[in-house]
Each structure stands twice: as structure tokens, then as C-alpha cells.
UniProtKB/TrEMBL annotation:
Species, as recorded: Amycolatopsis umgeniensis
Transmembrane segments annotated in the record for this chain: 12-31, 52-78, 98-117
Protein's name in the database: Pentapeptide repeat-containing protein
Alphabetical UniProt keywords: Membrane, Transmembrane, Transmembrane helix
Length: 436
């Protein structure tokens, strides 16, 4: 049988050649996909791209020869390595055929050279594009950082007009800098958390503008952005803050609401936290629902049964000298509960309840203490329970009710396991269950 160079088993030599070609291809592929990162996290150009073009062409030529050799060895192996005829057996026709094969091989090698050059150009062009893109990103990031620093300095300026310019500069930056929009919003919220300058009308105007900018952009440019507004400990006298509607949370913990009329409960009310907040405005209206923990209330508090859509829950809150008004026709009332709360000198005004509808018993006070206050149950055109008191204590509470002639249909309070101290309970308006 024909042997390669007269030595060794041709099948072993052919298999070794194929294996060598496969190893070279695998190593080349691994080197191709290996990426290096520079300090900026950008992909760098591979080392082979810095070699002369001649080296790259020679590498591709060597690879082509190896592939051709492997293919030829495999073909001979499949044919059983037949014996070649002697040179004398070749005629003119055979010689011409061999010349055609030789020319085809040369043309193929030329094609390999052209392919190598074109691939080198393509990869160099890709690298240049990546470098240009990375440069643009660095320049843009630098521009954003410079704008951020300038806007932050303006917000810290003593002049209110400069601070107002800084506000709009920071908001404009948040429009453009999507990746760090939350940081810009945090800066604006941080401005609102700063101590309020007493009797400083220009500063008050800046704060109002901050709230308006946040409200408008949350409803427009920033809609869909998962933003969180942290206004912990801030002080407000403007309803705009309760019109903010971020996609994530609105933190109003330990915030102070004073001097104005506030409507509590934006539509995404359960994303709002009021822990430890203080409400002492002239009037506070409760509409869309919310949970209040350890909050403090004073002034006039209004629950309109025609406008209160969702549940309000008050946990361990303190109500001092507050007027709690419950009114309406009961068309849309939801459950309002007070758990573990303290009521000091509060007036519960039920005069405005025209019709309970399906809201009978939806106002519930449990495990609470009511002291030195009053229940006003007059205008008894409604029959039914307007308030449930459960496991609570009444101390020195008084009831204002209609006369017997006017109380044929009376509003009533249901007591369940309630302790009454210094309190006279009118039988016509109080329903007892297991009172102790």
C-alpha cells in the first residue's frame, strides 16, 4: 500500500493531520473571542490586530494549506490510499489537467490572501467604531457630570433666582440623563428636605416650583420611569406634594403638613408612606386611601362618604384638638379604621351624614382611648350605626343629640367591650354589646 514519504501508517498520519488542523482552528477561535477590558470598562483591540498585514496573510495561507492537506489526506484515506501511476504514464491530456489543478490551487491561494486582507480591514473598522463609540460615551458622561455639578452649585446658591435656575437645569439634566435620572430626582427631593427659611418668600417660591416640576414631569417626561421620591422630614404648606405620582414609592415619613388645605391620598396611595407624619393644616381631606402609622393630626379632618374611595387605616396615631367630620350620602364610602389611637379633645361631627347607603359600620375605632371629646349625632334623619367602638376606653366624653321628639330615626354608635369613665351614654343613640 502507498505510504506517505515512505514511512509510517498513512491512516495514522492522515488522522494526526486532521487532529492538528482541528486544534489550530479551536485555538484561533478562542483567541478571536477573547476580549480584554481597559480601566474604563471598554473593549480593547486584540493584540493580533497590531501585527503587520503580511503576518496575518501568512497565517491564513498556512491555515489554508493545512486545511487543504487535511482534506487531501482524508480523501486518500477514504479511497484506501491508491497507488499513483509513474511519470511515464502521464500524457499530454493528463499534464494539462494537472496544470488546471495547479492554477486552481494558485487562484484559491490568491482568494485566501484577498479574504485575509478584507477581514483585516473589516475588523480594524469595527475596532475603530467601538473606540469612537466609547469616546462619545465618555464625552457625554463628562458633559452630564459637568452639568450636574453646575446645577447642584446653583441649587446651593444664596440667591433664590440662581436656585430657581439650578432647579430647571437639574430637571433638564434628568430629562436627558436617563441612566441617572433617579440621582437628579434625589437632589431635588434633598432640597425640599432642607430646613425651611422662615418668612423667606423667595425660598417658598423655589420650593413650590420644585414640587410643580416634579409633578409635571412625573405625569409627562418621566412617565414610566421607576422613580422613588424621598421627602422624609420635609415641611409642606402646599397641596402639590400630595399630587405627586411616582411609579415606585413616595416617602413622606415624619413630614410636616401645615397652614394649607390638603387632600390626602393620591391614586397610587398604597405606594405612599406617612409614618410619623404631622398634619396640622387648616383642613385635611381624605379621599383615595392610605395607611398612617404613628402620625399626628390636628385641625379639621374630613371624610366625605361620596369621595372616599379606598380604605384608610390609622395605626397608633394621635389626634389632638381635631374636628373629625364624617359627611355625605354614603355612595362610595370605604372602610376607615383607627387601631390603637389616642383622641384628645376631639369632636366627632356626624351631622353631615345624609345617608349611610352601604357604608353602615365602615367607621371603626378599636383598642383606642378617647378623652375629653364630643360626639355630635344631631340631625337624625338617618337610622343606623355611624361608628363602631371596639375594645376602647371613653373618658369624659359627651354626646350632643337631638331631642326625643326629633330622634325617632337616630344615628347611633355601637359599643363592643368599651369602658366608659365619666361619660354619660344616651340610650337612644348608643347600642351596647358586652360593655364592661
Amino acid at each position: 500500500m502507498w505510504t506517505w514519504l515512505g514511512r509510517g501508517d498513512p491512516r495514522v498520519l492522515g488522522g494526526a493531520t486532521v487532529a492538528l488542523v482541528l486544534v489550530i482552528l479551536v485555538i484561533g477561535r478562542l483567541r478571536r473571542f477573547r476580549r480584554r477590558r481597559n480601566r474604563d470598562g471598554l473593549r480593547s483591540v486584540e493584540l493580533w490586530r497590531h501585527k503587520p498585514i503580511a503576518g496575518a496573510v501568512l497565517q491564513w495561507m498556512a491555515l489554508a494549506l493545512l486545511v487543504a492537506g487535511a482534506a487531501g489526506a482524508a480523501l486518500l484515506w477514504l479511497l484506501g490510499f491508491p497507488s499513483f501511476p509513474s511519470a511515464a504514464a502521464f500524457g499530454t491530456t493528463e499534464v494539462l489537467e494537472l496544470l488546471k489543478i495547479a492554477l486552481a490551487v494558485v487562484a484559491g491561494l490568491g482568494g485566501v490572501v484577498l479574504l485575509a486582507v478584507n477581514m483585516r480591514k473589516q475588523r480594524v473598522a469595527e475596532s475603530e467604531h467601538l473606540i469612537a463609540q466609547a469616546k462619545d460615551e465618555r464625552e457625554q458622561a463628562q458633559s452630564f457630570n459637568e452639568r450636574f455639578g453646575t446645577a447642584a452649585e446653583q441649587l446651593a446658591h444664596d440667591n433664590a433666582a440662581v436656585r430657581l435656575a439650578g432647579l430647571y437645569a437639574m430637571a433638564g439634566l434628568a430629562d436627558d440623563w436617563v441612566a441617572n435620572r433617579q440621582i437628579c430626582v434625589d437632589v431635588l427631593c434633598g432640597y425640599l428636605r432642607l430646613p425651611v427659611r422662615e418668612n423667606d418668600q423667595p425660598d417658598a417660591k423655589v420650593r413650590e416650583s420644585v414640587l410643580r416640576v416634579l409633578r409635571d414631569r412625573l405625569n409627562d417626561n418621566w412617565r414610566g420611569s421607576a422613580l422613588e421620591l424621598d421627602l422624609t422630614g420635609a415641611r409642606f404648606s402646599n397641596q402639590t406634594v400630595l399630587q405627586l405620582a411616582p411609579q415606585r414609592r413616595l416617602l413622606l415619613d415624619h413630614a410636616l403638613f401645615e397652614d394649607g388645605v390638603f387632600t390626602v391620598g393620591p391614586m397610587n396611595a398604597y405606594a405612599v408612606s406617612y409614618t410619623g407624619a404631622t398634619f396640622r393644616g387648616s383642613e385635611t381631606r381624605f379621599e383615595w386611601g392610605g395607611i398612617f402609622t404613628a402620625a399626628h393630626f390636628a385641625g379639621r379632618l374630613v371624610f366625605d362618604t361620596d369621595r372616599t374611595w379606598r380604605r384608610f387605616r390609622f395605626i397608633e396615631c394621635v389626634f389632638a384638638e381635631a374636628t373629625i367630620v364624617i359627611k355625605g350620602e354614603g355612595e362610595r364610602i370605604s372602610l376607615v379604621t383607627f387601631e390603637g389611637c389616642t383622641f384628645e379633645g376631639c369632636l366627632f361631627d356626624f351631622k353631615g351624614v345624609v345617608d349611610l347607603g352601604e357604608g353602615e359600620g365602615n367607621f371603626l375605632i378599636s383598642s383606642s382611648t378617647l378623652r375629653d371629646g364630643k360626639f355630635d349625632l344631631r340631625k337624625g334623619s338617618v337610622t343606623g350605626t355611624v361608628l363602631w367602638l371596639i375594645d376602647s376606653k371613653l373618658e369624659n366624653m359627651t354626646f350632643t343629640v337631638d331631642s326625643e321628639a326629633e330622634s325617632r330615626s337616630a344615628k347611633s354608635i355601637t359599643l363592643v367591650n368599651v369602658t366608659a369613665v365619666g361619660t354619660e351614654l344616651p340610650d337612644s343613640h348608643v347600642f351596647h354589646r358586652d360593655q364592661t
